[in-house]
């Protein structure tokens, strides 16, 4: 049970998996501590450690009411502790309560375990998110205040990952502060066309993809040094570090009304891009569809993807006109959740899939 801090300076909380919407930055009052929960910690134990009495655990809970159920705290959660309120020395717990109370212990066997929510979108997904910027990458980085990553510390390596130091062209003159976190974003595809636009007449925009998060450690007027905190893809020079707001976890409310044949609801969308431009996708992957806020899609929507399939495969001739006239069904492939929207496109995460998903598969409400 290390990880306690006594400074009154703002403390950045590292992103981690938690059931609760934990504070992302804490400035503890003078005399208070911030304890970062370790594996195996309970409020009962922390009450004994910090306040000298396990029965004092409600004093910790009342300072951290973002914890909705005191029985469940998670490694990485930040807890404010007021050590000055310790009233009972270790070993004197019996003096602080009647015998009937002082001998009580938590009954872990009878404590019901809650059903944990399934997150359809979390921080892990955010830092590998692909999306289309309709006005192009240059416009996006200019408007979002992106900084070019132009160098790194270890010149013997080209691919960078967790713990590596990078240099970029933004500093105190651009409003950056030590501890600021930025999301690394690369240009994946310039001048992207809809797959159905075989003549390449109209570009949809540029495809960008987020790769990881860096934290500023050293500042100069017009440049900075940052450490890569977390990267799920290799990071290269030439990517951009873009200011961002910590995303909220989104609970996946899976639909029960799914199965084949899939009833199609207009307007129908199509999958037009798979993360990293892969040939196939499956559960957990990200895809981009060709409709967005203009068609009423919003973050959190649960969609269904399907594929037209002939009822009798023996009737397939190879002739598109004849095959289109054959009896067919809209075969259920899986469920998607919208996690980012633009005017004419949206990024979705595949929650469930029965088989491989391809560019061109149908998406419906």
Structural class: mainly beta
Total domain units? 3
How would a textbook summarize the main sheet?
Answer: 6 strands, antiparallel, barrel
Relative strand content? 25-35%
| Apparent shape | flat
Q: And the CATH topology of the largest domain?
A: Elongation Factor Tu (Ef-tu), domain 3
- Ranges where pLDDT stays below 50 over 5 or more residues in a row are none
Number of strands: 20
- The CATH C-level class name of the largest domain: Mainly Beta
- What proportion of the residues is helical, as a percent range? under 10%
Any idea what the CATH architecture of the largest domain is? Beta Barrel
The N- to C-terminal Cα distance equals 48 Å
Determine the number of helices (DSSP H or I, runs of at least 4 residues). Answer: 6
Mean pLDDT: 85
Radius of gyration using CA atoms only: 26 Å
Major sheet strand order: 8-9-12-11-10-13
Q: SSE string, helix = H, strand = E?
A: EEEEHHEHEHEHEEEEEEEEEEHEEE
Write a brief structural summary.
With 365 residues, the protein is mainly beta. The protein has helices at residues 43-51, 57-61, 99-102, 123-126, 137-144, 320-324, and strands at 4-5, 11-12, 25-26, 33-36, 78-81, 119-121, 130-133, 147-152, 165-168, 181-193, 203-219, 224-231, 240-243, 250-251, 269-274, 286-289, 302-310, 328-341, 346-353, 362-364. The strands form five sheets. The chain has a six-stranded antiparallel β-barrel with strand order 8-9-12-11-10-13. A six-stranded antiparallel beta barrel has the order 15-16-19-18-17-20.
């Amino acid at each position: 049970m290390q990880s306690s801090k006594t400074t009154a300076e703002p403390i950045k909380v590292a992103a981690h998996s938690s059931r609760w919407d934990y504070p992302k930055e804490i400035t503890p009052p003078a005399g208070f501590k911030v304890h970062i929960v370790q594996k195996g910690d309970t409020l009962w134990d922390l009450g004994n450690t910090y306040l000298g009495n396990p029965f004092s655990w409600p004093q910790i809970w009342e300072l951290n009411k973002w914890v909705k159920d005191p029985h469940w705290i998670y490694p990485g959660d930040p807890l404010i502790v007021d050590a000055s309120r310790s009233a009972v020395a270790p070993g004197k717990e019996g003096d602080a309560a009647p015998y009937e109370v002082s001998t009580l212990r938590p009954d872990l066997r009878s404590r019901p375990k809650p059903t944990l929510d399934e997150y359809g979108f979390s921080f892990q997904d955010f830092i590998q998110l692909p999306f289309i910027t309709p006005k192009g990458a240059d416009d996006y980085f200019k408007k979002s205040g992106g900084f070019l990553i132009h160098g790194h510390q270890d010149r013997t390596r080209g691919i960078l990952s967790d713990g590596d130091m990078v240099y970029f062209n933004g500093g105190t003159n651009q409003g950056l502060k030590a501890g600021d976190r930025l999301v690394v974003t690369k240009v994946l595809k310039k001048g992207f066309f809809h797959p159905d636009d075989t003549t390449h007449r109209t570009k949809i925009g540029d495809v960008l993809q987020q790769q990881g998060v860096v934290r500023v450690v050293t500042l100069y007027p017009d440049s900075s040094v940052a450490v890569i905190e977390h990267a799920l893809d290799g990071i290269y020079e030439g990517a951009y570090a873009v200011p961002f707001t910590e995303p909220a976890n989104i609970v996946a409310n899976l639909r029960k009304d799914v199965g084949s044949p899939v009833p199609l609801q207009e307007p129908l969308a199509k999958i037009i891009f798979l993360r990293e431009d892969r040939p196939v996708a499956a559960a957990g992957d990200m895809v981009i569809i060709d409709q967005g806020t203009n068609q009423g899609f919003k973050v959190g929507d649960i969609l269904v993807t399907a594929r037209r399939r002939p009822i009798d495969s023996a009737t397939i001739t190879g002739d598109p006109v004849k095959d289109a006239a054959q009896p067919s069904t809209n075969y259920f492939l899986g469920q998607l959740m919208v996690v980012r929207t633009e005017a004419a496109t949206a990024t979705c995460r595949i929650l469930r899939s029965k088989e491989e998903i391809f560019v061109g598969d149908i998406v419906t409400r």
